[in-house]
Automatic annotation (TrEMBL):
Gene3D superfamilies: Medium-chain alcohol dehydrogenases, catalytic domain, NAD(P)-binding Rossmann-like Domain. The lineage of its organism: Bacteria, Bacillati, Actinomycetota, Actinomycetes, Kitasatosporales. Pfam families: ADH_N, ADH_zinc_N_2. It comes from the Bacteria. Residues 10-294 form the Enoyl reductase (ER) domain. CDD domains: MDR_like_2. InterPro entries: ADH-like_N (IPR013154), ER (IPR020843), GroES-like_sf (IPR011032), Lipid_raft_assoc_Zn_ADH (IPR052585), NAD(P)-bd_dom_sf (IPR036291). This is NADP-dependent oxidoreductase.
């Protein structure tokens, strides 16, 4: 089968599509025939060596939508099931940017009924990250939340999930993203700067750090999206970062919200697997709204 990997770190040109063995599922694992796999900023980080692994063959891709192709022992999944999953791993020899991938059975959820595989592939990593961040922030209905990077993939899901919970959301994004951010459920919008302070919580999807922390009220909460990269706590603000994990049950809840129309799946464009380097170059160029998706 074909798979996108890096064998040395660098820019988009470091991405190679190689021939490799089709993986076999073990106990409590399933093999998915990949129909679509989203490209995320974390893939660029892996490609650049942010997470280490020099000298190894490192697979790319965390999100997958496709069809169960084979199962190991002790799984509830069947061949032919249409599914989505998060394949969690920074430095592994194979990711989801491939024709087949093996994942733990408990990382899998049934695919949305209301979306095709390309759109479904944009859900797992970013929606699970947003949901986990909101769990950490614990903003009650009626509380105030600022989401930085509100037009991005994580930020957009965070706006929709928080608004669905009855939280009063302010979205921070570029001026020309106001219509989009309000359509996702933000009650207020700020383009480029935030005049207001004293939010109950900030979900810092744009990774602004200390600048975003300053917008939280004393005793409030801040959540970052890069593990172990949070600003220092001050003024009694509870500071935390998201450690996303594969969780099929939680992913199934998010799929249900997609089918109910609560969550919007946004695709910025598609690329053939063989054009993975081109997709990386497009992501590196910035300004992408939604996710780029690789299709084997």
């Amino acid at each position: 089968m074909r798979a996108a990997v890096v064998t040395s770190f660098g820019g988009p040109e470091a991405v190679r599509v190689v021939e490799t063995e089709v993986p076999e599922p073990g106990a409590r694992q399933v093999r998915i025939r990949v129909a679509a796999a989203a490209l995320n900023p974390v893939d660029a980080g892996v490609r650049e060596g942010v997470f280490g692994g020099a000298g190894k063959v490192i697979g790319l891709g965390w999100d997958v939508a496709g069809t169960v192709d084979a199962t190991g022992a002790a799984t509830a999944w069947s061949v032919g099931d249409e599914v989505v999953a998060l394949d969690h791993g920074m430095v592994e020899p194979l990711g989801t940017h491939a024709e087949y991938v093996v994942v733990p059975a408990d990382a899998v959820a049934r695919a949305p009924r209301t979306a095709d595989a390309v759109h479904a592939a944009t859900l797992p990593l970013n929606a699970l990250t947003a949901a986990r961040a909101l769990d950490l922030l614990e903003v009650p209905a009626g509380g105030s939340l600022l989401v930085t990077g509100a037009a991005g993939a994580v930020g957009g899901y965070a706006v929709q999930l928080a608004a669905h919970r009855g939280v009063v959301v302010t979205g921070l994004a570029r001026e020309d993203d106001e219509e989009l951010v309000r359509s996702l459920g933000a009650a207020r919008f700020s383009g480029g700067a935030v005049e207001e302070k004293g939010f109950d919580a900030v979900l810092d999807a744009a990774v602004l750090g200390d600048r975003a922390l300053a917008w939280v009220r004393d005793g409030g909460a801040y959540a970052g999206v890069i593990p172990r990269a949070a600003p220092a706590a001050e003024r009694g603000v509870r500071v935390t970062t998201v450690e996303v994990a594969a969780d099929g049950n939680r992913l199934a809840e998010l799929v249900r919200l997609v089918d109910e129309g609560v969550l919007t799946l946004r695709v910025a464009g598609t690329h053939a697997l063989d054009d993975a380097a081109e997709a990386h170059a497009r992501l590196a160029g910035g300004g992408v709204r939604g996710r780029l998706v690789l299709v084997p």
